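Dear H.,

Thanks for agreeing to be a second pair of eyes. The structure we're designing against is below in token form, covering all 74 positions.
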């Protein structure tokens, strides 16, 4: 099954930090909390157009971690 990793980044086009979720060498999603906005996330397509398949519980655990990390850094 999918092995996820995550990291906090500081993209130049964002005011706050971003929580990135990776599957191997592909970025799966990005979670952000910009000033005056709720926590938002973007899911990116795979590089080769295939579908993402992963365990919901594992992904939800990372999403929860993302929200907590972003709240700590805001």
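And this is the sequence the design step returned. I haven't edited it by hand at all.
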């Amino acid at each position: 099954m999918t092995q996820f990793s995550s990291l906090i980044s500081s993209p130049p086009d964002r005011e706050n930090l971003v929580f990135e979720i990776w599957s191997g060498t592909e970025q799966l999603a990005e979670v952000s909390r910009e000033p005056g906005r709720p926590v938002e996330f973007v899911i990116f397509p795979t590089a080769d157009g295939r579908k993402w398949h992963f365990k919901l519980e594992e992904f939800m655990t990372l999403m929860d971690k993302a929200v907590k990390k972003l709240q700590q850094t805001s």
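Two observations from my side: The mean pLDDT is 91. The first helix runs from residue 56 to 73.

Warmly,
E.
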